[in-house]
C-alpha cells in the first residue's frame, strides 16, 4: 500500500522546481541584465554588426555568435519579472531600456545595410520575416528554460542556449534591411517576428516567476486582473497571424511535394516509353 506513495514522492523530488538562489540574488541578477549603458551598449552594437554580416552573407556561425553575446533578452525578462512581482521601478527601467535597445539595434542594422555592398535579400534574412506558430513555441519554451537558468546557480549555459534558440536579434536585422531597401513587407515581417519572440519570452518568464513564488508584492487591487487581461489580448493578437503563416507554409510545402512527385512520375513514364521503344527496336533487329 505504501509503494504508490513512495513512487509519487520520488517523482515529485525529481520534478521539483526549487530556487537555488535567494530571492534578492535573483532580483539583483535580473536588474543587472536589464541595465543598458556602458558595456551592454557596446556589446549590443558589436553583436548587431556581427548578426548583420552573418545574415548578409548567409553565415550561420556569425549569426549564432551574435545571438550568444547579445544583451537583448535582459530587459524582456526584467519587464516580465517586474510584472510578476509588481515592481514599478524595475518595470519602468526595463521598458525604457527595451525601447532604447530595440531602437539602437534597428538604427545600427539600417546603417550597415545602407553601406553594405551586398544588397541582395538572402535566404537567411527572409527566414526571419515570417514567424509561425512554431516560432511562438520556440520563444515560449526558450523563455521557460531561460528563467529556470536564472533561478539556478551557474545557469549561464542554459541562458546562452536560450539566446540562440529564441533568436531575438536576427529579426531586427531583417527589419533593418527592409528599412534600408524600402522593402516594407520585410520590415514588418521582421518586426512582427521580433515582437513575437519578446512577448512569449516575457510570458514564459511571468508564468514561471508566479509558479515559483515570486509574487509576494500584491500591489493595488485589480492589478493582477488588468495584467492577465493584457497578456490575453496580446497573445491572441500574436497567435492569429502566426497560425495563418504556419498554414500558408504548410500549403506551400504540400504544393512543392506534389510538384516533386508529379515530376518524378513524368520522368518514370518517359523512361518506360523509352524502354518500350528500345525493346521494340531489339525485337525488330532479331527478325
List the helices and strands and how they pair.
Blueprint: H1 3-15, H2 23-34, H3 39-56, H4 60-69, H5 73-85, H6 88-115, H7 123-126, H8 133-151, H9 156-166, H10 169-180, H11 184-211, H12 223-286
Report on this structure:
This protein is mainly alpha-helical and 287 residues long. The protein has one domain: Glycerol uptake facilitator protein. The protein has twelve helices and no strands. α2 packs across α5. It is globular and about 95 Å long. The model has no long low-confidence stretch (mean pLDDT 79).
Concise overview:
The chain is mainly α and 287 residues long.
What structural class do helix, strand and pairing data support?
A: mainly alpha
Number of discrete helical segments: 12
Fraction of residues in helices?
over 70%
The ordered string of helix (H) and strand (E) elements is HHHHHHHHHHHH
Characterize the largest beta sheet: strand count, sense, and whether it forms a barrel: none
Specify the overall morphology: globular
CATH-assigned fold name: Glycerol uptake facilitator protein
Domains (count): 1
N-C termini distance? 89 Å
Strand content range = under 5%
Q: Please provide the count of β strands.
A: 0
Task: State the CATH class.
Answer: Mainly Alpha
Mean pLDDT equals 79
Low-confidence stretches: none
CATH architecture: Up-down Bundle
Query: How much is the radius of gyration in Å?
Result: 26 Å
Amino acid at each position: 500500500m505504501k509503494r504508490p506513495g513512495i513512487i509519487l514522492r520520488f517523482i515529485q523530488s525529481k520534478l521539483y522546481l526549487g530556487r537555488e538562489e535567494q530571492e534578492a540574488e535573483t532580483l539583483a541578477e535580473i536588474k543587472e541584465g536589464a541595465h543598458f549603458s556602458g558595456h551592454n551598449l557596446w556589446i549590443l552594437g558589436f553583436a548587431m554588426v556581427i548578426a548583420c554580416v552573418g545574415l548578409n552573407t548567409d553565415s550561420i556561425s556569425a549569426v549564432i555568435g551574435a545571438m550568444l553575446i547579445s544583451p537583448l533578452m535582459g530587459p524582456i525578462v526584467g519587464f516580465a519579472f517586474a510584472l510578476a512581482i509588481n515592481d514599478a521601478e524595475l518595470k519602468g527601467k526595463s521598458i525604457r531600456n527595451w525601447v532604447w535597445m530595440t531602437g539602437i539595434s534597428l538604427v545600427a542594422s539600417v546603417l550597415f545595410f545602407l553601406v553594405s555592398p551586398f544588397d541582395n535579400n538572402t535566404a537567411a534574412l527572409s527566414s526571419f520575416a515570417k514567424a509561425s506558430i512554431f516560432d511562438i513555441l520556440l520563444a515560449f519554451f526558450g523563455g521557460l528554460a531561460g528563467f529556470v537558468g536564472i533561478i539556478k546557480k551557474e545557469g549561464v549555459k542554459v541562458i546562452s542556449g536560450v539566446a540562440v534558440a529564441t533568436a531575438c536579434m536576427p529579426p531586427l536585422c531583417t527589419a533593418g534591411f527592409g528599412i534600408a531597401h524600402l522593402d516594407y513587407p520585410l520590415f514588418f515581417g521582421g518586426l512582427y517576428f521580433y515582437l513575437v519572440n519578446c512577448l512569449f519570452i516575457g510570458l514564459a518568464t511571468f508564468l514561471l516567476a508566479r509558479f515559483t513564488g515570486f509574487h509576494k508584492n500584491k500591489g493595488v487591487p485589480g492589478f493582477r486582473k488588468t495584467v492577465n487581461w493584457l497578456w490575453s489580448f496580446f497573445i491572441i493578437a500574436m497567435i492569429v497571424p502566426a497560425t495563418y503563416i504556419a498554414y500558408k507554409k504548410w500549403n506551400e510545402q504540400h504544393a512543392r511535394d506534389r510538384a516533386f512527385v508529379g515530376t518524378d512520375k513524368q520522368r518514370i513514364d518517359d523512361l518506360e516509353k523509352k524502354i518500350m521503344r528500345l525493346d521494340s527496336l531489339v525485337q525488330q533487329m532479331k527478325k
